[in-house]
Amino acid sequence: MSNLSKKGSKLLGEDNSFINLRDGASGHVILKLHENSLSASGQRENCYYGRVPRFTFSNQNVLDRMAQELPDMKTGRITDVMTAYTKVLLDVLASGYAVRFGALGTFYIAPVGFANNPGDKLPLTVRFSPDVSLLSAVSKVEIADTSLAQPVVEFGQITDASRAACDGAITAGASVLVEGDGLRIGGEESGLWLAPVMEDGSYSQDEIRWKKISVFLYNHPKKLMFTLPSDIGEGRYVFVLRTKCSGGTKRLRKKMLEGVSESFIVRSAD
Question: Which of 34, 226, 248, 260 is most buried by its number of CB atoms within 10 A?
Fold first, then answer.
């Protein structure tokens, strides 16, 4: 394999895993409608915005499809070409140019946000302007179904960072990583609490008994990291999270969302 091929995975991205193409889009997509319940000024009420769940071709999927289109070319050589093409695009953009991406469209540099003063320098990002051929291809995709998506707070894996363990136990006074979706905390009366679990398996509804987490290292939609209070007693608890944040943004909803984790054990520090 050439040196270019060895560098290919880094330039093309690290995700070379397969997707199950039988479970993919197959010319159809599902349209998820989300209620527009944002509190930002100027937002329309009683309407919905749409999102389409993604079925993403990995680099390996693309390479396999290209190998079918170019049966006389070895896969390693195709990887070299893709890697070289990616490097050229990055170099050209880094030089300040807009750059064509075949017949699909143009990558170009654009400012982000608004300037308060004439001499302000805005941060830059890259955007894409599609050509007619790309828009025509997408126009052939059909919407198979439309459904209303309900905003939720979902707890996933809870990790005791001090032990690098996710075994259903976390340590008082230690760092904890919580992963999931819709976890970003924001808005009045929002927060994350430890609520004790009672003998019947339910958690206490007496909020006086809850212990609030006050300092966060990460407060992201899919990740929270914080230090567990050192004075929390041993026992079984759940996390209760309340937030008005909207998805991956910092904009606030009008209504509070609440989510409750699976129960876990709090252990004392060794």
Answer: 226
